Each structure stands twice: as C-alpha cells, then as structure tokens.
Amino acid sequence: MKILVINGPNLNMLGKREESHYGALTLNDLEDLIQNEFKDDKFEFFQSNHEGEIIDQIQNAPTYFNGIIINPGGFSHTSVAIRDALEVCKLPKIEVHLSNISAREDFRKNSITAPMTNGYLSGFQELSYIGGILLLKQIFDKINCQ
User: Fold this and answer.
1) CA-CA distance, 51 to 30, in Å (whole number)?
2) Tell me, what's the pLDDT at 46?
3) How far apart are CA 1 and CA 54, in angstroms?
4) Where in the sequence is the domain holding 51, given as residue range(s)?
5) Cβ contact 55:81 at 8 Å
6) Per the count of CB atoms within 10 A, which of 3, 102, 118, 146 is most buried?
C-alpha cells in the first residue's frame, strides 16, 4: 500500500514539545518507527506549517496514493479549507493526534476535520499513527474486496 502521512503545524517541533502530550520522539524518529513497523508498505511523509501546502497534498494524493494518515495539528480545530479538501478526496483517510484532544483545553476538543475522514485516533502518542495505519490498511482491503 502507498500511504501519504501528512503532519501539520508545529509537528516539526516534536522532541521539543511537552513530552506528556506528544511523547519523546522527534518527527524523524516517528517516520522511522512507521517505516520499520510496516516494511511492506511505501510511505511519503509531508510536514508543513502552511495550510495551503497541506491542501495541495490532499488534492494531489489520489493520483499517487492509496490512503492518507493526517495529523492536522492545530488546523484540525480551525481549518474549513483543509476540511473541504478532505471531503473532496475520496481516498480512505484516518486523522491521528498524539495527544488526547478530548482531555485538553476546550478549544482543542472539537476537530472540524475529523468528520471528513473514516475515523480518528487520539491520545496514544506514536501509537496513534501505528493504529491509524493498521485501520487504514483494513479499510483499503475491505473496499477492494467488495
């Protein structure tokens, strides 16, 4: 399976942010973990602090990928534009968050992007990505078996 992993704003700062929320891994460590866990799959990793760049990746994804894992970061609470791009994109998509957004500040508890994905995982730090990829692969297999 070919999977695009999109990371939004400030995720390039992993390893420097609050370890209790985000874990101790850097973004490079997280990418290595994913590639080592799923050796039979191909991944492209993309991180941006810019909303439009994330939208471009989502819009272009169906040409090159079978599914998307997205951590929109703070954009998950604010970006109607990313939400709209996810809605148009017909690939299987899973939203992931390292921290448990339901246990955080009130403004973080509502993701406006998650309803445009097949589902979301939150609060398992790096395991949110691992679980998200496992689920994405099962969704993809189910769609292709019907």
Assistant:
1) 22
2) 98
3) 21
4) 2-145
5) yes
6) 3
Taking the C-alpha atoms of residue 52 and residue 73, their distance in angstroms, rounded to an integer, is: 14
Which is higher by pLDDT, 5 or 18?
Answer: 5
> What integer pLDDT is reported at residue 146 of this predicted model?
66
Q: Quick one: 50 exposed, middle or buried, by C-beta within 10 A (0-12, 13-18, 19+)?
A: exposed
- Does 22 participate in catalysis according to the annotation? yes
| The two structure tokens encoding residue 130 | 């691992």
Q: In total, how many domains does the chain have?
A: 1
21, 22, 50, 129: the active-site residue: 22
Q: Assess whether 129 carries a catalytic annotation.
A: no
Tell me: the pLDDT tens digits for 70-117? 999 999 999 999 999 999 999 999 999 998 888 787 878 789 999 999
